[in-house]
Amino acid sequence: MFDIRIFSDDLSRLKTSLLFVPVFQDQLGLPESLQFLEAALEPGLEVAMDRANFQGKLEESLILFPRTDQVPVLVLLGAGKVVEWDIEHARRWFGATVKVAQERRQPEFSVFWEKGLPLPKDSEIFFTESAAAMVMATYRMKEFQHGRQGENGVEITHVELIWPDAPAELERYLSEGLALGRTVNQVRHLADLPPNVLTPGRFVEEVRNLAPQYGWKLRVLDRDELEAEGLNCILAVASGSANDPYLVLIEHNPADARGTVGLVGKGVTFDSGGISIKPSKDMDKMKYDMCGAAAVLGAMEMAAQAELPVKLVAAIPLVENLPSHRAMRPSDIIRSYSGQTVEILNTDAEGRLILADALSYLDKNFSPDVLIDLATLTGAIVVALGHLAAGLFSTDGGLIEQLEEAGNLSGERVWSLPMWPEYEEMLKSRVADVANIGSSRAAGSITAALFLKKFVQQARWAHIDIAGTAWEMPERSYRGKGPSGFGVRLLYHWLKHIFLAAKEESK
To answer: How many angstroms separate the CA atoms of 391 and 121, rounded?
Structure first.
């Protein structure tokens, strides 16, 4: 178990074998309170930096060995330029400490910080995100590997944060960050499970195991209940699979709740495209088509752990999209939960179908103030934004601004795209209320969002298309290959620092 403890005693009493020290490009050298260590270095600090051409660039490292065991091995870890220091640089810097320690096979190490060093945001955000980054940097999917334990270095178990005169709240910030990092890693692990293991039913088991721990009210609608409720879009997508579909409804309802938020996550545990089958190249990545569902589950966990005073209701539709003699067909017409009929022109546009039913269900039965869905919805968003930002769609300007701010805090950035009514013309059907794809490939992520908008009648709503960010984001010290866990930190910071703050101001 990875943990972080605080050392705020006299530095002369410091006992550690490996000490990381931040060094900025424009402040080369040890912080003043650590300069007493220079006498034990051979060669001296300036000579070592000169020989190695150490410049303090972000994540650049220089290891210095002392003449005596009484002084720790020092790792000067570049932090870049002070003027460029921001939350993302902090995440990368703290994540790099884990990487270097693993390479040196050190399960325990220390990190130095103090109030004289720059903070890009207030201490709470800085240390919550930095601690989370360290935990995230430890993630490895090893469940199905045997005999390869040594490939990824040692398991980090303990980190000591050295801060003379540490602020009283620091322990709380670090604890929050540890929880956040662990939750993101759990979401990544769910996404990494193979689809023959993480079926819709297995996902339901995961939720059932968590519910008692957090005191959630849980309802799981099975096939019979889906039919009784008229959730026909969910049923249609699942019709080709031997694995049963579900709609999972989770309620987090604290006594002091201020406002109600609905969260919907796309949970296609494997997406072959159905009858409109996908190309075989990269189809293995379609096990990640449930990343929206996993992120929503993670956000619910974090809200419960942090005891956020907001009522949260999550709807997670879980299906597998496969071709068979029972599968839905192009030209089928489905009557959705909302009563609107949908012409199926492409069975690979299945995510919007299950989201449509889930959005309608939450909007009608729970009347949330705000309704947000996360989904690996369209390849078009990858063309538009690549793997650096998720697409954000809403007609509510205030909600757009809030989510953009949360994206800047979390590093899970979102970018707003237009939802002009003229685009809706592309969704017209000759034989039904709406077609499930646009009349051309143009503006595919926009028409998908406008399709979803038709199924939300009351709540302020936003759709976040994470198809480009759920996996294949650029590698960072805290984010390796594979699933990113995108959305957990975005939603958590939005809920805690923005949504609830707005509620407080409106009192």
So the answer is: 25
Q: pLDDT value at position 121? A: 67
* pLDDT at 330 > cutoff 70: yes
Q: Give the span between the Cα atoms of 477 and 500, in whole angstroms.
A: 31
Choosing from 352, 413, 476, 496, which is the catalytic residue? Answer: 352
Q: Spell out a b/e string for 227-248, using b for 16 or more CB atoms within 10 Å of the CB, else e.
A: eebbbbbbbbbbbbbebbbbbb
Active-site residue among 278, 285, 364, 503? 278
The answer, yes or no, to whether residue 315 has pLDDT greater than 90, is yes
State the Cα–Cα distance between residues 101 and 154, nearest whole angstrom: 8
Strand segments (E) across 128-228: 158-162, 217-221
Q: Which fold has domain 182-505?
A: Aminopeptidase (3.40.630)
Strand segments, DSSP code E, in 206-245 are: 217-221
Active-site residue flag, 278: yes
Report the run of H or E that residue 174 belongs to, with start and end. Answer: helix 170-192
What CA–CA distance (Å, rounded) separates 342 from 332?
Answer: 8
Residue 267 in contact with residue 346, Cβ under 8 Å? no
- Predicted local confidence at residue 43, as pLDDT: 82
- Measured CA to CA, the distance from residue 31 to residue 47 in angstroms comes to 17
Torsion of CA 316, 287, 153, 108, to 10 degrees: 0
Neighbours of 204 (CB within 10 A): 20
Q: pLDDT, tens digit, for every residue of 374-389?
A: 999 999 999 999 999 9
C-beta separation of 16 from 172 below 8 A: no
Question: What is the CATH number that goes with domain 3-164?
Answer: 3.40.220.10
Residues carrying CATH 3.40.220.10, the chain: 3-164
Strand order in the sheet with 108-112: 3-7, 158-162, 108-112, 18-23, 73-78, 61-64
| DSSP summary character for residue 479 | B
The per-residue pLDDT for 149 is: 61
- Report whether the peptide linkage leading into residue 43 is cis, meaning its omega lies within 30 degrees of zero: yes
CA dist., res. 318 & res. 221, Å (int): 10
Residue 470 pLDDT exceeds 90: yes
Confidence of residue 1 (pLDDT cuts 50, 70, 90): confident
Is 51 catalytic? The answer is no
Q: Please compute the mean of the pLDDT values over residues 297-316 and round it to a whole number.
A: 97
Cα 146–chain centre separation: 28
Q: Using an 8 Å Cβ cutoff, are 318 and 269 in contact?
A: yes
**12, amino acid identity:** S
Amino acid 132: pLDDT: 98
Q: Quickly state the pLDDT bin for 151 (edges 50, 70, 90).
A: low
Domain with CATH 3.40.630.10 in the chain: 182-505
| Structural contact between residues 40 and 94, judged by C-beta atoms closer than 8 angstroms | no
Alpha carbon dihedral 128, 131, 134, 139, in 10-degree steps, equals -70
